[in-house]
Amino acid sequence: MAFPLPMPMRRALDLAAEAARAGEVPVGAVVSRGETIVAEGRNMMRQGLDPTAHAEMVAIRAAAAALGSPRLDGCTLWVSLEPCAMCAGAIALARFDALRFAAEDPKGGGVVHGARVFAQDTCHHRPDVLGGLGEAEAAAQLRDFFLARR
């Protein structure tokens, strides 16, 4: 039996599709507090000529501005792809309660792959992590995006 995706993950996947239409790698991110979406973002590295403009970073910056604090206690970050090490570091610094992501990223991920940022002794805050929510759709978005460019 398939279950409907939580609304913030549905939105993150929709943002990933928007990113792909704009020529960006299809990754979307949403910050929620309780049932409320606080901020959202999509990959904008090419558009903004900014290598740090990953979907997570865009959403984190917008959430900090919206909430008036660099600490995002009580918030959950929903991402269509496993965050890289840079984004995982920002997630820890922002003090997210939870991280939810769709597809794993064996090449560039920094949570369950690669650097495994939250598993390091030097990581001072570790959110609750759950992956695999909407994994098939996110993986298909990424696969289709890169196939079209080959």
Please identify the structural class as seen in this structure.
Answer: alpha/beta
Which band does the percent of strand residues land in?
15-25%
Strand adjacency order, main sheet: 2-1-3-4-5
Shape: globular
The major beta sheet can be summarized as: 5 strands, mixed
Computed over alpha carbons, the radius of gyration is 14 Å
Structural commentary:
With 150 residues, the protein is of the alpha/beta class. The chain has five helices and five strands, in the order H-E-E-H-H-E-H-E-E-H. It has a five-stranded mixed sheet. Strand 3, helix 4 and strand 4 (98-103) form a beta-alpha-beta unit. Helix 1 packs parallel to helix 5 (135-148). It is globular. The protein starts with 6 loop residues before the first helix and ends with a helix. The relative contact order is 0.16. The mean pLDDT is 96.
Observed structural traits:
150 residues; alpha/beta; 5-stranded mixed β-sheet; 5 helices; 5 strands; globular
Summarize the topology.
Layout: H1 7-21, E1 28-33, E2 36-42, H2 45-48, H3 55-67, E3 75-81, H4 85-94, E4 98-103, E5 128-131, H5 135-148
Parallel strand pairs: 3-4, 4-5
Antiparallel strand pairs: 1-2, 1-3
Helix pairs in contact: 1-5
Produce a short descriptive summary:
This protein is of the alpha/beta class and about 150 residues long. The protein is built from 5 helices and 5 strands. Helix 1 packs parallel to helix 5.
